[in-house]
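ok so for the tutorial part 2 we go from a plain amino acid sequence to predicted structure tokens. step 1 is just haveing the sequence, like this:
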Amino acid sequence: MDILNFLTARNSIAANKLIEPAPTSEQLGQIFQAAVSAPDHGRIHPWRFIVIEGDARKKLGDVFVRATKLREPDAYEGMLETLRSKPLRSPMIIAVCAIVEENHPKAPEVEQIISAGCAAHSLMMALNALNFGAILLTGPNAHDNLVKKELGLEEKDVIVGFVYTGTPEGEQPSKTRPDYQQFVEYFNPESN
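step 2 — the prediction. this is what the tokens look like for a chain of 192 residues:
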């Protein structure tokens, strides 16, 4: 498959359709090397990748519950149990984070976050190239300061998303893509 077809064929795989095996240490090395090839204005390397697997997924579920209880003291038990089990849906999660350098003279914070987003995309494409499935998920816990703290981040840092990964289970349906033309405009100052 050529690279353009590979890029346009990319699909997110539902987290509950990702099973063992997850990437090996050697494969993770390849995946992370692709991720750190992301655009990086100022060469500040704003990325951090936190691998969560095995029993650490249960601990992450506990963190999600604690964070939610602080945000929503009236959260009902069923919702909390669903949150607790979310990290168990796939064999591995990679938290993709932007370690934000505030007031950087060349790279504003938004560029650092975009760089981490590009790294997340490259990471997901590398996973797909190695025949793994992946989905990038966020939600309130990705923006929660307690979750950040438990992952070793500071409040200023950003969790771009949690990449759930593993081997896709069964055939995955292809997705219809929008027509790119509805998103493209050409700047023409003479028409104004």
